[in-house]
Write a structure and sequence with these properties.
The chain has 132 residues and is an all-beta fold. Helices cover 0% and strands 35% of the residues. It has a four-stranded antiparallel beta sheet with strand order 3-4-5-6, with no helix packed on it. A three-stranded antiparallel beta sheet has the order 7-8-9, with no helix packed on it. It is globular and about 40 Å long. 22% of the residues are buried.
């Protein structure tokens, strides 16, 4: 479903700008979106079960939670591999320019992506990337 979009981010009229369109549908399977966040070139969606996280977009710094990082974007929504305990619920998700943070209901915070400025809140800050 596409509709004409006005203005829209990214400035100018070219590049990555698209018309308003439906990007994901939960009409099958019963799952529903619960929270969504976006960074400069990636998006993260937490499903209603508060355990499943989907991501799409640029993974140059590992910000969509896929091993290997590198290269361009992923145009398909794919499941993020969990690195925390089974059954842990996600309370909140947030994205920065090239990193993602998840706050669990247990009050633990997990982050992945670019840590070049220490934005994941862990030591490194020298271009070190990863999930802590």
């Amino acid at each position: 479903k596409e509709e004409e979009g006005g203005g829209g981010g990214g400035g100018g009229g070219g590049g990555g700008c698209v018309k308003f369109q439906q990007v994901l549908s939960f009409s099958r399977g019963g799952a529903r979106g619960w929270q969504i966040a976006g960074g400069e070139a990636h998006s993260v969606l937490v499903l209603e079960d508060e355990e499943t996280i989907l991501s799409a977009g640029c993974n140059e710094s590992g910000q969509i939670g896929r091993r290997g990082g590198g290269g361009g974007g992923r145009s398909r929504w794919e499941k993020v591999e969990r690195r925390w305990g089974e059954g842990e619920k996600v309370r909140m998700v947030a994205c920065g320019q090239s990193h993602t943070l998840v706050l669990l209901c247990s009050s633990e915070i997990y982050g992945w992506g670019d840590n070049s400025m220490g934005q994941l809140g862990v030591r490194g800050g020298d271009g070190e990337e990863g999930q802590e």
